[in-house]
Amino acid sequence: MRPVLAVTMGDPAGIGAEISVKALEHEEVYRECIPYVIGDRCALENAVAFTGGHLKLRSVEQTGQLRGEFGTVEYFDSKCLRKNGWEYGKVSAACGNAAFQYIKKAIELALKHEVLGVVTAPINKEALHKAGYRYSGHTEIFADLTGCKKYAMMLLGRSLRVIHVTTHVPLRRACDLVKRDRVRDVIQLAHDALGLMGIPNPRIAVAGLNPHSSEDGLFGDEEEKEIIPAIRDAARLGICVEGPVPPDTVFVKAVGGQYDIVVAMYHDQGHIPMKLCGFKMDPATRAFTSVSGVNCTVGLPIIRTSVDHGTAFDKAATGTANEESMVEAIGTAARMAKRKYALS
């Protein structure tokens, strides 16, 4: 069984089309799924040229017409852009609108079960806002367009998994949003998502918010008032959960195999260790030699994975973008879709 996956092209001014095309140069992708790129033909033509022109493009209007043949990029032409109608590396309303339309189309297909998952290339938040879409990122778009109220951002790496209580909000606001109900819900979402990924009864660690997890109230009271009660709630539901573990050691323990996932309290608390594990840079050339990691929105009625990096406007149209994270995101979505299908 090869699930059909929608792959959204991301902001056309960035590297999204390029990494989508490069990912589809990997034959193993086609052994796991049938990819269906949602984007604009003119941008995909450019991307094929950037990567050496090895792949063919085939326009497909209906998912029932997909062949899933390696060597051919099958795509839906959203016709949001005209040829040479945008500038690479530049923020624009036109590209922000196009990126949103790709996502909207993919979600529609997933809700109608015409695709079994959605994989997204990066978007630019400023461009999105210029186009009139006041979302802080992919996660919020997917939650809104699917009508989902309880959801979370999960990051998946080769040695570490992290799920977030809060994400794209100011740090001062994030502290205020660490509440008992939200922490408990995120623990539950982590438990359920890892089950779908084939990890039964996962070992979940909850990071503290404050240094040393407040050290018995010396550095704050959020642990005592909100986080510890949430952990107890989850434990009573039969979830294997521990914490709050001091945030300066919890990720080391998870990488060492003590935990299957860490519940992080805010964006950078989770993102920094993930990217330290998954991103590698050559000190001589200052070029990234590895860009590994997958972003997954859990709690949605559909499967959604993404690359764990941005639009990289500085690399756009150069042919040097690294597709590693996109390949991983497609593979993760395919495995989740197969398991979800098997359990249904």
How would you describe what is shown here?
There is one protein chain. With 344 residues, the chain is α/β, with parallel strands linked by helices. It has two domains: 193 residues, 3-Layer(aba) Sandwich (Isopropylmalate Dehydrogenase); 149 residues, 3-Layer(aba) Sandwich (Isopropylmalate Dehydrogenase). 39% of the residues lie in helices and 18% in strands. The protein has twelve helices and 14 strands. Strands 3-4-2-1-5-14-13-6-7-10-8-9 form a twelve-stranded mixed beta sheet, with helices on both faces. A two-stranded antiparallel ribbon has the order 11-12. β6 and β7 form a beta hairpin. α8 packs across α9. The longest helix has 20 residues. The chain starts with a strand and ends with a helix.
Assign the CATH superfamily of the largest domain.
Isopropylmalate Dehydrogenase
How many helices in DSSP terms?
A: 12
**Percent helix:** 25-40%
CATH architect. name of the largest domain: 3-Layer(aba) Sandwich
How many domains would you count in the coordinates? 2
Number of strands: 14
User: Whole-number radius of gyration?
Assistant: 20 Å
Poorly predicted residue ranges: none
What top-tier CATH class of the largest domain fits best? Answer: Alpha Beta
Structural class: alpha/beta
CATH topology of the largest domain: Isopropylmalate Dehydrogenase
Indicate the mean pLDDT: 94
Main sheet makeup: 12 strands, mixed
The SSE order reads EHHEHEEHEHHEEHHEHEHEHEEEEH
The neighbouring-strand order within the major sheet is: 3-4-2-1-5-14-13-6-7-10-8-9
How far is it from the N-terminal to the C-terminal residue, by CA? 14 Å
Tertiary shape: globular
Content of β-strand: 15-25%
